[in-house]
Amino acid sequence: MILKKEKEMMLFGLQPERSSFKGVGLFLFIYLGATLFASILTPPAYWAIEWLHSVSPSETTTWLLGKHIDVYYDRLRWAPIILGFPWMMKECGLFSLSNLGMKIGARPLISFLSFFAFGILLASAIFGLQWAFGVSSPDKTFDASTLASVILSALSGALTVALLEEIIMRGLIMRSFYTAIGPISAVVLSSLFFAYKHFKVPDCVWDKLPGGGSATWDIGFFVAWYDTVGIAYEFDFPKFGGLFMFGAFLCLLYIKTKSLWPCVGFHAGLVFCLMVYRKTFDITSGGPREILGGAGMTDGWLALAVLTAMCAALLLPSGRGADSDDARAS
After folding, report:
1. β 136-138/281-283 pair status
2. 327 pLDDT exceeds 80?
3. Cα–Cα distance, 53 to 312 (Å, whole number)
4. Containing domain of residue 161, as a range?
5. Does residue 167 lie in a domain region?
6. Least confident segment among 1-10, 24-33, 74-83, 158-167
7. Number of domains observed in the structure of the chain
8. Which stretch of DSSP H or E encloses residue 136?
9. Domain-embedded: residue 34
10. Residue 166 to residue 138: CA distance in whole angstroms
11. Is residue 102 in some structural domain?
12. CA distances from 156 to 136, 161, 276, 297 (A)
């Protein structure tokens, strides 16, 4: 049952009646450590590119120096995260595909493909409505001969993003909260974090940064601050709510199926469709954009309503689940 602890979702081999904050502590250690790491090393990294450009200018160094300083911060923050989460997986006992919910076989493959198709259909339906009601229009500059490469690039990107985010967000973070405080709080807290991290440093803050965002010695800490509170500058309830319900649906799907493959499939299907859409369509200034959203898909009231309904459907008790609960009670 989704709203009760189950052994299959507990970390460290704990029984459902027990709790442990070890996973939450490991997550906070990695996340805060990565933030400090990036805050300290962002200026030296930028200075190194400036020095390299001064002694050996190239298209690459010119391109890198054209990036906002928050891009350096974001990339540097990923280094300890990439190194730290495998360690966290080992500590949590999730190097086993079975424990992680990623068994290999025919049934997991069918589950993955089914939800991948579902994700594409859902995104296509919303994007189709955007086109029909004038929110978007085909990109007239798009070269149809590049469609195959666009599809392949979108497919590889979507699979990579979905796999990494589901392992980290649902497999590690959600289950850490699940083991510590239970399923309801785990779904809510991990989904809030998932939505929150989709808001980056807002463009409007660059005028407030020292030197307009140049690489002063403390710029990494300024970026870290605005990365933390930036959501307050550009908060958008439909976008935040849509991302929250998207994360909640994936959490509930994982808890209900005990498998990450449906989550990876659905996530990848949405991202795949989104990436192709952004390459082939332009978002216009017309149409009911607040309702239908934009190129992010989850930034409109329609997506929020659909995802909320999907979460509600997963929370409905199934006949088989009710029977098994009765059997355990007897």
Report:
1. antiparallel
2. no
3. 55
4. 98-199+235-317
5. yes
6. 1-10
7. 1
8. strand 136-138
9. no
10. 31
11. yes
12. 25, 9, 12, 20
Q: How far is Cα 244 from Cα 158, in angstroms, rounded to an integer?
A: 19
| Alpha carbon distance 200, 230 (integer Å) | 6
Asked if 260 and 166 touch (Cβ cutoff 8 Å), the reply is yes
Residue 302 lies in a domain: yes
Confidence of residue 212 (pLDDT cuts 50, 70, 90): low
Q: How many residues does the chain have?
A: 330
Residue 305's pLDDT band (cuts 50, 70, 90): very high
Place of tokens 């930034």: 299
Q: What is the DSSP string of 265-305?
A: HHHHHHHHHHHHHHHHEEE-S-S-HHHH--TTSTTSHHHHH
Token duo for residue 307: 């995802």
Residue with the two structure tokens 């974001």: 74
For residues 253 and 314, the answer to whether their CB atoms sit within 8 Å is: yes
| CB burial of residue 261 (10 Å; 0-12, 13-18, 19+) | buried
The amino acid occupying position 151 is: I
Q: Averaging pLDDT over each range in 199-213, 254-268, 313-327, which range is the top one?
A: 254-268
Q: Does the pLDDT value for residue 172 go beyond 70? A: yes
